Amino acid sequence: MRATCKKCLGLLLISGLLLFLFCAWSPGTSSGVDIRQRQGGEIQELLEGKLQDTISGYHDIPYHIKDDVACHLAQNTCVCRADEETFRLPFSNLLFPRVWAHNIELAFLESHPDPRGVKRHRAQEYSRFQTRSYNPADALIVAEANNPLQYPTQGVEVRPLKTIIIPEETGSSHTVYLTATLGTLDVAATVDGVSIKGEGEKHMTLSSPLLSALNRQLQFVTYTNTVFHPKTADTVQFSTDVHQSFFTIKVGHGTIPKLYNSGYQREYNISALVTIVTKTFLRYDKLKDLIDSIRQYYPTVTIVIADDNEHPQSVTGPHIDHYIMPFGKGWFAGRNLAVSQALTKYVLWVDDDFLFTANTKVERMVDILEKTSLDLVGGAVREATGYTATYRHTISVEEGGEEGDCLHIRDGYHHVIEGFPNCVVADAVINFFLGRTDKVQQVGFNPRLARHGHLEFFIDALGSLHIGSCSDVIVSHASKIILPWSKTDSQKAYDKFRYSSSTADNDVHKEDFYFKNRFKCMTSH
Asked: Which of 31, 34, 147, 354 is the most buried (most CB within 10 A)?
């Protein structure tokens, strides 16, 4: 018994020794990736660059970099670096996982036939993305010291749990107080003759007998977000003994671009840029006519068809994707399915009884989306009678208090688009439009609207999509004039579904407007 205990004790001692050696030699999760810049010159260049973008002056007052704070500032020079493997034991990755790295640029470009061309095309697409996503409200604006305090009024942003410099200055007292709520305050560098209390805390006090030294120190104040939230804002108080101001720092992740590699072309390659989507139900004859008309002008453009027929028929052909849905799933559900399968930058919606003609110039619609900030542009529909309709609408929402808001829909548009005399800006357009695929997907189509719905999509898109309408891009509408005694069984069945005004359908619309959109009233022409 005593011998057994000795063996167990020996095993425990050996296991403990191995575990100690393992822990001592293992690189761990964080020790292999050190983002701190230890060369003073690079940190100094970073700070000077940030100061030039915010507040000038006081360049003759020296400062001393605080490396442990300044190293956390965004440097816009991310590198692809993995943890170094210094010691390996069985199952070591389970206890001490290593950071791995994969150079996407190298992996993609080394096998690409035209690496320079694709890099140029990506840069062009990213530039357009930045132009579309730019918001003037995000620009940094610093209120000049007409009052004794100079502080940012807008445009200060920080990533969750990251650090930034706050541009500030005072023109009065030699003591200032800073208070944050969702983060901590510190300085990236110190200035001689300035006393600092509360470094790394939510409340920080800076004082100096020299106003110039204090203002130089204020140029190095940093804010570090400590409460993770993907999208919020911190309110910072900046005050002296007799003055105070407040400003906000937006906390949030940056927008990830969604770019489409359609190939670099001098002219628009519609097949690489556009997917045509439609929803069909009990109208295979109309659908066939639509496909034939598309192929006459765009033989290689992909057509995506959502089909919720009870007895679906085969729809095949080059560049055709036919998706079968549950029977009677509905109009907007089919739109969601069709749009979700688009792989191109743009998606063109057409009804299954439309017909392409020589006037259906998709290039024209692509051109306006490429050259403007519009997210979606509608065309015009020419009826069999010869009448051409655009159906442009403006939409506005008027606040209505506790009972809900008021929705106002009016015929018309806001203004003509400069450079495109046949195009205008509106809030809703006809049922023939080209949109940026990712933006249309973001809004989506309410799948509860099974039989009726169109303006509902644009109501949901209000404030999200920038919409235009061009009267010189025209699609034809197949004739709806059919004598009652000549209707086929399929046409009669379609009319029964399409034009029924069931109580259930009406109740869905009422509930969506009242509850989902919080409207109490709707007015329209």
From this structure: 354
Q: Which domain holds residue 202?
A: 136-252
Q: Which residues, listed in sequence order, are joined to residue 389 by a DSSP beta bridge?
A: 381
345 and 440 part of one domain:
yes
- List, as one string, the DSSP characters of 100-137: ----HHHHHHTT-S-HHHHHHHHHHHHHHHHHHH--GG
Domain membership flag for residue 265:
no
Rounded CA gap, 420 and 371, in Å? 10
Q: Is 340 within 8 Å of 323 (Cβ atoms)?
A: no
Residues 306 and 442 in one domain: yes
Nearest to 212 by CA among 45, 55, 44: 55
For the chain, residues with pLDDT lower than 70 are 1-56, 75-77, 79, 85-95, 100, 141-148, 151, 172, 480-487, 489-505
Note the pLDDT tens digit of each residue in 210-251.
Answer: 888 998 999 899 999 999 888 899 999 999 888 888 889 999
- Domain stops at, among 221, 252, 283: 252
pLDDT for the residue numbered 509: 77
Q: Quote the CA–CA distance of 469 and 175 in Å, as a whole number.
A: 58
Q: How many domains does the chain have?
A: 2
In a domain, 365, yes or no: yes
CATH number at residue 176: 2.60.40
Q: Burial of 191 by CB count in 10 Å (0-12 exposed, 13-18 middle, 19+ buried)?
A: buried
Domain check: are 207 and 354 in the same one? no
